[in-house]
Write a structure and sequence with these properties.
The chain is an alpha+beta fold. Helix content is 44%, strand content 23%. Strands 2-3-1-6 form a four-stranded antiparallel sheet, with helices on both faces. Strands 4-5 form a two-stranded antiparallel sheet. Helix 2 crosses helix 3 and helix 4 runs antiparallel to helix 5.
Length: 163
């Protein structure tokens, strides 16, 4: 029987402009494991560590995709607000992790992220002050689409539930 997994889509929020460029998936994973240990103790850490991994990290946008077992995703999600800093290359950056979406497959998270980015761009469009800014945002909006259907890999097994 296949192991049911959950994918948690988050964004790194920080006042420090260098924070996003300097983060690495190892640093994010370490900070999350540390928060789980502080909030839920050894038991929670053991439950979450079984198949926990940072599947994707975009340092430019600050988007992070985490994978964990379905039976422990609530423990993981409840510890995310307690991540207060990331440490990378002996530098500490204060930040927070904002949970955007929890899905049953990577594909559902990708679809959510496209819609989320489209909404963010529409808000930017409404706040534009000149035509050049509007043109740049419209161009970005038009580029938000899924181009081709990818076959599902083992990591994307869908058990029908997207809590």
């Amino acid at each position: 029987a296949a192991v049911s997994r959950r994918y948690v889509l988050c964004e790194v929020v920080s006042e420090d402009p260098w924070c996003r460029q300097c983060i690495e998936d190892r640093a994010v994973g370490f900070a999350i494991r540390d928060a789980i240990g502080r909030v839920h103790g050894d038991y929670g850490l053991a439950c979450c560590s079984v198949s926990f991994t940072v599947k994707y990290l975009n340092a430019y946008t600050g988007v992070v995709l985490l994978r964990c077992r379905k039976d422990s995703y609530r423990l993981l999600c409840s510890a995310l607000p307690f991540v207060r800093q990331l440490e990378s290359r002996n530098q500490r950056y204060s930040c927070a992790l904002n949970t955007l979406h929890v899905g049953g497959t990577i594909r559902t998270c990708q679809k959510f992220l496209i819609q989320y980015n489209r909404r963010q761009l529409l808000m930017l469009l409404q706040n534009c002050t000149n035509e050049e800014e509007r043109w740049c945002v419209r161009k970005s909006l038009l580029s938000c689409s899924l181009t081709e259907e990818q076959p599902q890999s083992e990591d994307e097994e869908d058990d029908g539930s997207t809590e």
